[in-house]
Please model this.
Amino acid sequence: MKKIIVPLDFSEQSEYALKVAVSLAKKHGSEILALHMLELNQAMITSTEGFHPEQTVFLIKLAEKRFNDFLKKPYLEGLKVTPIIKHYKVFSEVNEIAAEHNAELIVMGSHGTDGLEEIFIGSNAEKVVRNADVPVLVIKNEITDFSIKRFVFASDFKEESIVGYNKAKAFASMLNAELDLVYINTPGDNFLSSNDIYTRINNFIGEVNEALQVEIYNDYSVERGVLNYSKNNSADAIGISTHGRKGLAHFFMGSIGEDVVNHSKIPVVTFKI
Model:
């Protein structure tokens, strides 16, 4: 893992993410790309109507100084840290920066969201997850020495999920973590009989050509099942695939991956498929 992107907004949560990135960078010899996105939109930067250009320049310089001061942390000493500043918030840019710099992981902090705010606004982490092609590791709390021993990966084990499984396996191998595979069975239209579940899992095993052990866990929703199974099995982190749905498809269908990111207390890694 050569490069890790860490979006920073000076919040406690973003510093939690930075400390996790530092733990990973020290273990893997990685460069940290510290990304700050200013609260200035493109119209404010380019328009002279009602806003003086010198004021814009002043705000940018002020934010740049604050960002550079923020990065003067003792725990960053000895690491290669490259600051990147963008002058307005477009969350697809995080993915573009990852592609431009060949970054292999995005680590970001989140406090999560609930209720109407989640439906109509969503968390910044959710927006990054929706756009990112590389894995996104979401951190909610401070972790002094980040490591993962038990990594739960939840999947529906359909053929399209092979990509997500391969990414999760590679991530677990990189961190020397035990990969715990689980299928969440729910009531209603998505309910499968035991025979149907084993048939699907066996077909998946045949496609990946590996000897896999998959747990089957019953709950009222996939999200609740993932969270409850992870808690009951003392998982250190959760991995889940996401389709990165946008627009009306996202509003009406939602994303289980994004819901887990918002509500999990332990770190979550999303893998786009």
Observations:
- Residues 115-122, 247-254 have pLDDT under 50 and may be disordered.
- The longest strand covers residues 178-185.
